[in-house]
Amino acid sequence: PQGFGGIAAEAYQSMITRRFEDSVNDALKKRAAEISSTAPSADAYKNAMSDFVGQMYEAEGEQTMFSRYISETGEDYIESTYATLKKKEQDAARKALIRQEKLNLFVGINDTRKAIAAGVDEGDINSSIVRQKSRLQALWDSGSMSVSEYTKGLEELDGLRSLRDSGNLFRLYGELSDSEKNQVRLYYSMTRLCRPNRCSLGLLRFAL
């Protein structure tokens, strides 16, 4: 302004510059809050903010001190906030995937248990157990499971194998003749009566 000395004019210009920078920063923060609350993704946020900064730049005019500040500050602000939003988005997606895989494991184990009870083909049962083991191991290897969750899963799989083997024994027993079934019942009754290590040799001879 007229009448200002050199120092006063410089101070006045500095005040104007700070005021402009503050207004740009406030506008960026305000618009970022509005866009981030409605944007469906971090990428959508980045695109919308880039359009906003472009409009601010065009309104100020090209190749001025103020337009350069808008461009540089806007780009830096967008990149920093975008990185934060993108990380939150990725973390949320990872948590959702882990929850879904844990649910798939739970459902898979239950379905396998039901299939064993229904007498489904052993090959299909084995394939299902292998799938659940692979899913459990992937969750563990990715650090998505606690030790207690992992050991519980292993116990569940062991239980499935035991159920499968028991089912096979019942099926084999059902295919025996009456005389063979009598032998099995007799053998079982003898094992219950024997004390540990007292009649192992006799039972072995009987079984042979």
TL;DR?
The protein is an all-alpha fold and 208 residues long. It is 85% helix and 0% strand.
Keywords:
208 residues; mainly alpha
Report on the structure:
This protein has 208 residues and is mainly alpha-helical. The protein has 7 helices and no strands. The chain has helices spanning 6-38, 42-60, 65-117, 122-141, 147-174, 178-193, 200-207. Helix 1 (6-38) packs antiparallel against helix 2 (42-60), helix 3 runs parallel beside helix 5 and helix 4 runs antiparallel to helix 5. The longest helix has 53 residues, at 65-117. It is rod-shaped and about 120 Å long. The termini are far apart.
Count all strands and give the number.
0
Which outline best applies?
rod-shaped
Which structural class is indicated by helix and strand composition?
A: mainly alpha
Distance between the termini: 115 Å
Strand content: under 5%
Biggest sheet character: none
Runs in which pLDDT lies below 50 for 5 or more consecutive residues are 200-208
Q: What's the number of helices?
A: 7
**What's the helix-strand series?**
HHHHHHH
Helix content: over 70%
Rg, please?
Answer: 37 Å
Q: What is the residue-averaged pLDDT? A: 82
